[in-house]
Amino acid sequence: MENFRETLLLLISVPIYALIIGGELIYSHLKNKQLYTTKGLISNIYLTALNMGLDILIRVTVLTVLNYFYQFKVTDFTSSIILYWVLLILLEDFMYYWLHRIDHYCRFFWAVHVTHHNSEEFNFTVGFRSSVFQPLYRFIYFIPLAILGFSALDIMFAYSATQIVGILVHTQTVKKLGVLEHIFVTPSHHRVHHASNVKYLDKNMGMLLIIWDKLFGTFEAEDEKEPVKYGLTTNINTYHPLKMVFHEWQQIVKDVFTKGNFKEKLLYIFGPPGWSHDGSRKTSSQLRRELKAKQTN
Fold it and tell me: In 188-204, which positions are buried (b, 16+ CB within 10 angstroms) versus exposed (e)?
């Protein structure tokens, strides 16, 4: 049954991706927007292949772990199939929000997630530019769903289904979407998420619903007065296949072996990205405070 559902999802999503990517490529060419580069496209395919390969390799382990916790389920929603799937989609998106937020606020996990952000381009194929090693720990956030009474196969299917939406919001060609902006993650919201502007750093973490960001203080609307600048606060300026994946890990090792006392070394690993013991680098919160102070004076 699960193979059938995943195959059906693949058969539906692949033509959609092909059409929208092809359409955006044509639009980019006709309007001279330069939304795509050959090197950027190849790097997105490369990172996607690494992520998918690892995901496939550990799929049995992930399902085994989730099935183990499912045997301790505390409730049963199967009497209402509609309630079951609505709750699963909502709760899976909620857990993804916290996964994504921690990926941004803990440098250890940011070193994994940064591969999704170190492109200075923003187009549909960037949606496939995956956090290569995230499959190794992503499933841990879904263990509470198994305990609540959702099967492992359904959890993974729900994640795959919501990922379709998560990929489709990676575009500059779709403007704001009216009332949908208040409920769902839209291209406008996700452009903010990929920005390196201080105002936009670490905002809009949701994949399907934007309500989590509004509830937990990580929402920022796209401001026409401040165009989005894509990439990192300090861009890597390379398409080297190893550096794209490991550049932040390399910097962590350098920081740990050359700076600070033991506590500070731990903060270089598990503190927020940009933290430094001597203030030579800044976290997103520190950068925002500095910007606010400048605007106030």
Answer: bbbbbbbbbbbebbbbb
What is the number of helices (H) and of strands (E) in the chain?
11, 0
User: In the chain, what are the domain boundaries?
Assistant: 2-177, 243-296
Cross-strand partners of 195? 230
pLDDT string in tens for the chain (297-residue length) = 455 566 666 667 778 888 888 889 888 888 778 899 999 999 999 999 999 999 999 999 999 999 999 999 999 887 899 999 999 999 999 999 999 999 999 999 999 999 999 999 999 999 999 899 999 999 999 999 999 999 999 999 999 989 988 999 999 999 999 999 999 999 999 999 999 999 999 999 999 999 999 999 999 999 999 999 999 999 999 999 999 999 999 999 999 999 989 999 999 999 999 999 999 999 999 999 998 888 887
DSSP string computed for 61-79: HHHHHHHHHHTT-S---TT
Specify the residue for token string 């292949």: 49
Per the listing, tokens 């405070």 go with 289
Among residues 138, 143, 89, which one has the least CA distance to residue 113? Answer: 138
Q: What is the pTM of this model?
A: 0.93
Please state the separation of Cα 130 from the chain's center in Å. 8
- Gap between the Cα atoms of 243 and 270, Å rounded: 21
CA–CA separation, 158 and 22 (whole Å): 27
Burial 101-137, CB ≥16 within 10 A → b, else e:
bbbbbbbbbbbbbbbbbbbbbbbbbbbbbbbbbbbee
